[in-house]
Design brief:
2 copies of one chain form a homodimer.
Chain A lengths: L6 H11 L8 E2 L2 H7 L2 E6 L9 H11 L2 H6 L1 E4 L3 H13 L3 E6 L4 H9 L3 E5 L6 H9 L5 E2 L6 H20 L6 E5 L4 H13 L5 E6 L5 H7 L23 H9 L3 E5 L1 H15 L9 H7 L9 E6 L6 H10 L1
Parallel strand pairs in A: 2-10, 3-4, 3-6, 4-5, 7-8, 7-10, 8-9
Antiparallel strand pairs in A: 1-2
Helix pairs in contact in A: 1-8, 3-5, 3-8, 5-6, 8-9, 9-11, 10-11, 12-13, 12-14
């Protein structure tokens, strides 16, 4: 088992994933720059396979497994992008996969997992414990549980988004002043921040969380992973997981990353801005970094700001809410 | 003056434009493939600068002009993507530009041109002749009128989209069975079809027009450029220009390209499909090729179909109509 993490893991992941993932474009709009008061470079992970960066980590995990473990198959607990991405990655490498979902999960999310050939197990969150349900299904088959973020292979896979971003900036001769990434458990945030800091050692790095539901900012501050505080629900479902990761928060702390917070309204506004100037469909979590820039959550004026917009899996009704509000 | 056209012109344009345009991604969704009943590869020109392929041709035109002509400046008659793209390209190369627009043009389109520093001249389409207005403004300054499509530098610039597409297919080892491009005056259609046929000499090529407003199909059939027939208005404003080009229709005829037609409802449905599976914001004209595939306008079953989705400049209200209808 690998017990430490370095930039080398991300480079290895990039080689492993080459040709199987989308090298998502780095987009810029002069009009958006004027609105933001700084130069904004957007890494559009919404255009990644399955509509979110999660596919990078899931596929890297499966490709990193010994053949016999892969053949027995994998399990995920997820009603969101992680389950969808793992189901798609398992289909790509041809391994069995079970996704354990609460029975009240959105029909579209269940369908997405099933579409890729995953075995779906529904449980009742009122009366059943999902870990126990997972063990019952996967235990006899000796299947491996793939965690959503706090795993070095997952972190390295998500980190390839940051590595590509650094390459794309360098190809264009652009020197970033700031890097901003969305953050829930911290897989994407830690991996891509590590990749960016390797290329730009003193780069100020920020991660963005839903206002009132911050868990990574206190984790980084205190040096131990914290739970999400009780608070109002958010439309940023991709950023509202229950807990920050131990490995991920450690990496972000080492990178001196700083937390920023955005509200639902700010994110809806950013989704409309991405629609208008970038022609991107972003989900609320995917627009959080752009919201942080547009609402000047730190001093970005006149700076060159590289951001990751992490996904585009949004219901039409939520997207229309963003367009209506604009 | 250049009086003939070859693949070499497109290659030259690609070299001229390198680094100044977005190499737009080629996207694929296995779920979309299943819905379409064929393998669909989408060249997302909606992610091009100014939100449409038009920037390629406009910038190539300006970069091809002798320095003295460029310094005197250029004029365009356009209330759509051509004017916006020429204004942006003129800003890039630092040359004066006048955009002549009907005074009832959408405010957003006027603002877009002005944003880039263009001089805006409004005329009354009821009482004034736009050519005369243009001559009055540009004549004394000896400015050059840049036509929207029937010009070999414009055609070559738009053709770089097809050249990139051929390169991207080849990089992935994909052999296309069919190529489909949207068509109004025919700049993009002729240029990119010529590029694709140079790489794949026997490739069946199709161009897509709004049903009931076909002008290129009869132009290609009869060998002379035809006017748009009188018909109901369409939401595909990017495909409803008054006339097909002479040069563009000749190139399409030489490439044995075949016309297909799609309705507004079919295009709205394709916009919703692009939102759901590709996370792309497409304008109606930009979704026309995808509509042709989804509605099986020719026999694409089981084939590998490469399409250009040409732009994403769409009002929120029209986009919401597409999402509502889905």
């Amino acid at each position: 088992m690998q017990e430490s993490f370095s930039f080398f893991n991300i480079q290895e992941a990039a080689i492993r994933l080459a040709g199987s993932i989308v090298r998502t474009p780095l987009l810029e709009s002069p009009m958006l720059n004027q609105v933001a008061g700084c130069r904004v470079l957007v890494k559009a992970e919404s255009l990644q396979r399955t509509g979110a960066f999660k596919y990078r980590g899931a596929l890297n995990k499966l490709l990193s497994l010994p053949k016999d473990i892969r053949q027995r198959g994998v399990v995920a607990f997820s009603s969101g992008n992680h389950g969808h991405a793992l189901a798609a990655a398992a289909s790509e490498v041809g391994c069995p996969v079970v996704i354990v979902l609460p029975k009240d999960a959105a029909a579209i999310k269940i369908e997405n997992c099933r579409w890729w050939g995953a075995e779906i197990v529904l449980y009742d969150p009122e009366t059943e414990d999902r870990e126990e349900v997972g063990r019952r299904v996967a235990g006899p088959r000796n299947m491996l549980v793939v965690p959503p973020f706090d795993d070095y292979d997952i972190i390295a896979g998500q980190g390839t988004a940051g590595l590509e971003l650094a390459e794309q900036l360098s190809e264009r001769g652009i020197q970033p002043d700031v890097f901003i990434v969305p953050c829930s458990g911290g897989g994407l945030a830690s991996g891509s921040t590590a990749a960016m800091r390797h290329t730009y050692p003193d780069l100020p790095c920020f991660f963005v969380e839903p206002a009132g539901l911050e868990k990574m900012a206190p984790s980084v501050r205190e040096g131990t992973p914290q739970k999400r505080p009780a608070g109002s629900p958010t439309i940023m479902d991709g950023l509202s997981g229950p807990v920050a990761g131990a490995r991920t928060s450690k990496i972000l702390r080492e990178c001196e990353a700083v937390g920023l917070s955005v509200s639902d309204d700010e994110v809806l506004d950013a989704m409309a801005v991405a629609f208008r100037y970038l022609k991107l469909v972003l989900e609320p979590a995917g627009a959080a970094t752009l919201a942080a820039v547009l609402r000047r959550k730190a001093d970005f004026e006149g700076k060159t700001v590289a951001v990751i917009c992490s996904g585009g899996n949004v219901d039409p009704s939520v997207f229309m809410r963003a367009l209506h509000a604009s």
